[in-house]
Amino acid sequence: MHSQTTISRFPSLSTQTHFESLISFIKSTTKTTQLLQIHAYLLRTSLIQNTTFSVPFLNRISLPPLQNLTYSLRTFSQISRPIVTHYNTIIRAYAMSKYPEKGFYVYRDMMRKGKSPNSQSLSFVTKCCTKGCSVFGGLQVHARILRDGYCSDTLLLTTLMEFYSGGGKGDDACKVFDEMPQRDTVAWNVLVSCYTRNGRTRDALDVFDRMQRGEHGCDPDDVTCLLVLQACSNMCAFEFGERVHRYVKDHGYSHALNICNSLVAMYSKCGQLDKAYEVFQEIPNKDVVSWTAMISGFASNGRGREAINVFREMQRMGISPDEQTFTALLSGCSHSGLLDEGRSIFDRMQREFGLVPNIHHYGCVVDLMGRVGLVEDAYELIVSMNCKPDATIWRTLLGACKVHGTRSRRLHSTFEHLLICWQFGESNRIEETDERERDPNNPEC
């Protein structure tokens, strides 16, 4: 009723105050039904051709929380002379969608119609190229950035760095960074992320040192600390991780949950479980990531029983485990040879928590059974899986068979087929093994 009353006032709008009221209503409404009524009014009065109204309306239906890409495209087609801002909204919507490559097509269409892209256009289309893994498109956008003189736009160049970094072109990302006349903390963080993503972990740690020295007027922030802690985990750089931890304490980031979780993961990866547990104990409001990080820490260091104890405490605190939690638990049982516990956890995951096992869960249980010599049981589990076993699972079973042996004729036949596939590099035929074993007409079944 309220929306109908509001819409009924629109035909009488004539003053600037009323126009501003309509724009405010477009920006604030949270109901699709109201937007549909506004749209009908804009079409009936031809105000859809007025950028004052069409821009905020298109923005409202193209972006969260009311994002509807199909509706956005229909509305966009009703605008007879769209301006660059209209195009930017559609490109941005595609960058946030499952079809980022279509954003580049909109960008090309905009230029074909004589519209010159601005810095926002170039930023949004670069994100489309990053998400859509379009190297050719990104290179074209880079050329346009240089041509149009946006070489001092730090935000745009940072987006370009993310494109090169995401495409595995770390050197090109670093070159863009080096050519920036001014760099903010975001640009430095993207550089750290680029180094970490492309396996240049030592360089990522060096960036943290450079920022701390204050040579460029940008101190590390909480995001920098998160990225560097990840780099420390990758390198098992315990001493450097301790330095980052001290920086976190000195700069008031020690209560940030994501940083605390990263510290637990870093210390665990470095084998410093006492320090990891100390940080874990000091976290006031632990979430599922916190508990999983600690469980994973114990599990990866061969302390499966401690991992199970943490899981029990997690349940007492009322925190629901997720798929990653069970992956860590089952891995801990495997590394510690806890067969009964592992089987029980695998069963509870499905029965009590309603989680469907994925390839990682099955892999842990197969490894656990293989370690204790239950090769045939592991094989039966593989055959009964609700997903296709990958090469890693078959190799795990083969390794267990080499250690413990098997009398199963069926297993010998399976391994012969696998070895032939691996010998000739026919990894695509490995999936056929699963189908052969499931086939009831197979005489060896």
Tags for this model:
single chain; 445 residues; mainly alpha; globular; disordered N terminus; repeat; PPR_At4g14850-like_plant; TPR-like_helical_dom_sf
How is this structure best summarized?
The protein is built from 26 helices and no strands. It is an all-alpha fold and 445 residues long.
Structure description:
There is one protein chain. The protein has 445 residues and is mainly α. The protein has a domain at 356-445. The chain has 26 helices and no strands. The relative contact order is 0.03. Residues 1-5 have low confidence and may be disordered. InterPro entries: PPR_At4g14850-like_plant, PPR_rpt, TPR-like_helical_dom_sf. This is Putative tetratricopeptide-like helical domain-containing protein. Pfam families: PPR, PPR_2. One of its GO terms (molecular function) is RNA binding. It comes from Helianthus annuus.
Q: What's the number of extended β-strand segments?
A: 0
Shape type: globular
Strand content: under 5%
Helix percent reads over 70%
Distance between the termini: 68 Å
GO biological process, one term: RNA modification
Protein name: Putative tetratricopeptide-like helical domain-containing protein
Pfam families: PPR, PPR_2
GO molecular function: RNA binding
What is the topological layout?
Layout: H1 2-8, H2 16-28, H3 32-44, H4 51-62, H5 69-77, H6 84-95, H7 101-112, H8 119-131, H9 135-147, H10 154-166, H11 170-178, H12 185-197, H13 201-212, H14 222-235, H15 238-250, H16 257-269, H17 273-282, H18 288-300, H19 304-316, H20 323-336, H21 339-351, H22 359-371, H23 375-383, H24 391-404, H25 409-423, H26 430-438
Helix pairs in contact: 2-4, 4-6, 5-6, 6-7, 6-8, 7-8, 8-9, 8-10, 10-11, 10-12, 11-12, 12-13, 12-14, 13-14, 14-15, 14-16, 15-16, 16-17, 16-18, 17-18, 18-19, 18-20, 19-20, 20-21, 20-22, 21-22, 22-23, 22-24, 23-24
